[in-house]
Write a structure and sequence with these properties.
This protein has about 290 residues and is an all-alpha fold. It has a single domain, classed as Up-down Bundle (Growth Hormone, Chain: A), CATH 1.20.1250.20. It has helices spanning about 1-10, 10-20, 25-35, 40-70, 75-95, 115-120, 120-150, 160-180, 185-205, 210-240, 245-275, 280-285. It is a multi-pass membrane protein.
């Protein structure tokens, strides 16, 4: 499978960062989704994919430590390879073929439109924001397992912290999203999230070996992260120039996956050079 070939050729760490950062699979999935959905359902379908990213991350955070502890790190890569193979088979046998490939300026990439989208100051801020958010996500969770271990919480039990905090965060963000949309307080809620992430990173950095302080920091982080993950696509859609929404969402997705790649690499380098807790301190500075 491709993941194991990549690991053998260039090494596991570089392979993981390159595969996550390329965004090639996500781009192809979103393009196919545009072809297979009616225009009136396209926004809802895109939103579902966005939500599924957060759910998938939560599942991975829970299952990763369990699989690694029970079967070893190699088993985790083989599991990824098996899931990738299953995805290929589902795409071939279950997903219908596209027979209606029509360029829609509001859902697809428009040739020659990148300069206009990249030059839009408000979109530039939002794209930079989602990139920093995912840099922060990855760099934080490079450092966090070591902090939990130092606090006396065994690695095999880390999934319990991730599961509990993610479930609470998913439930807690719903009223905030409703408030932001109904009361038109999107900007205020967004700024609240930025402040909450700063507080979360400071709590994580200062927690040291205190387990419950780490849990509080993780809970605050997931609450802010999930809320921003839900708000940013809506803000991108609202701020996009007429006829360029598809291109704007493409640039947004690229920024998102670039942040994942940079966050993992920078988090690992910072933790190795300055110590495990430095990753979250650097995150607070971002």
């Amino acid at each position: 499978p491709a993941s194991d070939i990549c690991e053998w050729l260039v090494g596991s760490e570089r392979c993981i960062r390159d595969r996550q950062g390329s965004g090639a699979i996500a781009a192809a999935v979103m393009a196919l989704l545009s072809d297979l959905t009616r225009e009136q359902n396209r926004t809802k379908a895109m939103a579902f994919i966005g939500v599924s990213f957060g759910i998938t991350f939560a599942i991975a955070m829970v299952l990763g430590p369990i699989v690694t502890h029970s079967l070893g790190l190699n088993a985790l890569f083989w599991m990824i390879a098996a899931l990738a193979t299953l995805g290929i088979l589902l795409t071939i046998w279950v997903v219908p073929n596209s027979t209606n490939h029509v360029l829609n300026r509001e859902s697809g990439m428009v040739k020659g439109s990148f300069s206009k989208v990249l030059a839009e100051p408000r979109l530039l801020k939002l794209n930079f924001g989602i990139m920093c958010l995912h840099i922060l996500l990855m760099s934080t969770f490079v450092a966090l397992p070591g902090q939990l271990a130092d606090a006396g919480f065994p690695a095999a039990e880390h999934w319990k912290v991730y599961l509990a905090t993610m479930v609470i965060a998913f439930a807690a963000v719903v009223p905030f999203i409703i408030y932001a949309e109904v009361k038109r307080r999107m900007k205020q809620v967004f700024l609240f999230c930025v402040g909450l992430i700063i507080v979360a990173e400071i709590v994580l950095w200062g927690a040291g070996q205190h387990f419950w302080e780490l849990v509080i920091g993780v809970q605050l982080f997931f609450l802010a992260f999930n809320l921003m993950e839900a708000l940013l696509p809506s803000l991108i859609s609202k701020e996009s120039p007429a006829g360029y929404k598809g291109t704007a969402m493409g640039v947004y997705s690229t920024s998102q996956f670039l942040g994942v790649a940079l966050g993992g690499s920078l988090g690992g380098w910072i933790a190795g050079a300055f110590g495990g807790g430095s990753g979250v301190l650097a995150g607070a500075g971002r």
